[in-house]
Amino acid sequence: MSDPGIVVIGAGQAGGWAARTLRDEGFEGGIVVIGEEPYPPYERPPLSKEVLLGKEPAESSYLWPEGSFGDLGIELRTGVEATSIERAEKTVVLSDGGTIAYDKLLIATGGRVRRLPIQGETLEGVHYLRGIDDSAAIRADLGEGAKLVVIGGGWIGLEVAAAARMLGADVVVVEALEQLCGRALTPDLATYLLDVHRGRGVDVRLGTTVEALTGESRVSGARLSGGETVPATAAVIGIGIVPNVELAEAAGLEVQNGIVVDALCRTSDPDIFAAGDVTNHPNGLLGRNIRLESWENAQNQGIAAAKAMLGGETPYCEIPWFWSDQYDVNIQLVGLPADIEETVTRGNRADGSFVEFYMKDGKIDGAAAIDNPRDIRFAKRLMQAEKTVDPAALADPSVKLQTLLRG
Amino acid sequence: MSDIEFHAVAKTADLDDGEAIQVIVGKKEIAIYNLEGTYYATDDICTHAYASLADGYIEGDSIECPLHGGCFDIKTGKALTPPVTEDLKVYEIKIDGEDILVGVPG
Ligand SMILES: Cc1cc2nc3c(=O)[nH]c(=O)nc-3n(C[C@H](O)[C@H](O)[C@H](O)COP(=O)(O)OP(=O)(O)OC[C@H]3O[C@@H](n4cnc5c(N)ncnc54)[C@H](O)[C@@H]3O)c2cc1C
Ligand code: FES
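Output (structure tokens, whole complex):
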């Protein structure tokens, strides 16, 4: 046996970027990446967008072409699950009976879909969406004459609804709360998004739940809380994810809504690090601990963890950023604004391109944009610089945001 | 190797310092940049997914993709920050009076 090197559990986006970064940073020891899925590391966002629409093949979501890890001397073991971490021996036990020793370990196990235990949940045609196979199965059910019921009006549900409409399906979205996307959007912006979907012919039911999915072997309808049953040829449940913390928990690491790590991605065991959707980490800019389910965090925390594993001392601390694509509408959010004192709108809602700045103590605490990615970049930089800005100037399209950044 | 052909694609007045525009040559989408009065050209479509870099954010010599924030060096096309790892092609620029010409393999 060779010297133990670095082992990564989870060949997702965070694990993939971590492994690659270890090599980019000059680490020459052994790297083994263990992934339960049969695919090389890939990005999930296209699975509810381009890939679901059939515009791009699933392989387009791979972080790097197949075989890239081999070329970098990284051993990628797919289709294998890590079943326990033996901290005393510093080994990881695998589902195929094997054991791998580690010098340092990264847990990047992400999350799994939260299940909705209602009657009919396991009928044929009822789907969840997390991986490549899920996306393909949903797409296969969106042929001619499809009637889709989407349970959950969050990001995933709305992206699936948009793709299904674009493919010609009838779509009903059922959301338990009185607004879409919960607390991620201000009520105003949630209403804007609601109008976007209704304008495209989606039947959105707010304040409604699905009590049961009906059908013999295959789903044929969804019974709503009001008593009505809407017909369905397929259903997609998108009600969030649960972080995969069990391995860490069983190993005695500190877990609380995710694996608890510090700003250097270290768990309560100095040789074990964690990154991605599975972590509960401090954010120095926000002054609180957060667990994110986002593409950017998976990538950048994965990179930060790799550097920290090699002795780097730069804390991981970024302003959270998130995007979603629905139809031809690009939505971008920056920051996690808590107590909004004032909302400043730049641009015109009626034009379909605008940005909202959320102000606190004279500074931008967050922003959200519809089809205006460039202003989001300015917002992020104004936030990073902690600039005090004049709301009137922000709202005035004749004032270039560049000048506010310089001023 | 085929020869480079120069095509007039824009006027110098079309873009201010620190701005970019998309032009189409044949079937190719190309981004033209003005960095302090000097013009540069790269492929316009990001090497990560489908986004027009001309809609991106210029800072110093780099262009940040509007979709997921990958950065490229405008002068060399080099991929600078994740998620981009594949470089952009760069094209030669000539200025003829008010015309910006971009050189593309014929
Ligand atoms: C359909 C969809 C669309 C999305 N769209 C967006 C978007 O538009 N914008 C955005 O910001 N974010 C989006 N996200 C979220 C983003 O994809 C996630 O935040 C990101 O994938 C998290 O990366 P990760 O590496 O932490 O976890 P994951 O990508 O979940 O990777 C974890 C991997 O670990 C494996 N694993 C788990 N346990 C074990 C084990 N014991 N042994 C071996 N392997 C294991 C899993 O199988 C998985 O492959 C989307 C997610 C989905 C599902
Ligand atoms: S498309 Fe440019 S960074 Fe993703």
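Chain A has a mean pLDDT of 96.
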